[in-house]
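sorry to bug you again but im stuck and you know this stuff better than me. theres a chain ive been looking at and ive put its sequence and its fold in token form underneath. id like you to explain what the token line says about the fold, in plain words if possible. anything you notice is useful, everything is just below.
___
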Amino acid sequence: MLAKHESTTQASPLFYRLLDKALPRLKHYLPHNRFGDNLYHRLAFLRKHQRLPSRRLLWNDVWYRVKTSREIREPLRVLVSDKEHVKDYVRDTIGDRYNVPTLAVLHSAAEVDSYDFPPNCCIKPTHGSAQVVLRVDGAPIDRERIKKWFSINYYLAGRERNYRTLDPKVIVEPLIFGSSNVDDYKIFCWRGVPKIIQQDIDRYTNHTRKFFDTDWNEQDFSIIYPRSSSVAAKPATLAEMLTVARTLSAPFSFVRIDLYTDNQQVLVGEITNCSENAGGWFLPRSAEHKASALMFS
């Protein structure tokens, strides 16, 4: 439940429908500076959560403060936003053995046309999110789709300023642990301390999630995607995963460390500066308070 002094913004469903239609235009026309970005983020937060962001230690409110403050433009935040350069940070901080190997980095559409992609590989842009091609057993590749990634400006897509100066590139990696359907573990850290673990299951087929505390006690909520009903075994490498997350998150306030494990090896997928762009609604909605108490205690 909402706290007594907190309430949803009293507005009609029509208001939110109009705001939903207006946001894409506002995103395009608002000035590309901190004022324009933050006004867009404030309206987007209102549309997602039907309330204005507060100064409280609430999950989405803290993400909102990260992305609307000068913190999001700090050099390290910008560096780890790039899927090629984040590996430099991982290598320098905990060692190259935690990196997914890089097979190639392509800098132009011409390089995409000429590159001989391995039969099994993962292909994604280094300067954005939510775009990926998993090639399995030499399946045909849509090179035109991949070439279009060079025209993506992820800053313009979501007004997240950490992406604004990134160069467009395409990175090619082997399939993690030789599979195209690996569970990933996203560890949310507050001031260098891991607090909550998100497990994503069947991400490319039937996406569900589970949430745990760091002792692997399952939580009774999810974010955006349904809570999985399957039994999730505690990873044999959990202690190592928490150590990796603790070390990598040390310079940040609120951050998400994305990991993979096959119960023998731990690999870093990426470091996420603003999970769900501060738009991760809870299932049920009231669980944001419970998760926040666990996260920020």
Observations:
- The two ends are 19 Å apart (CA to CA).
- The chain has ten helices and eleven strands.
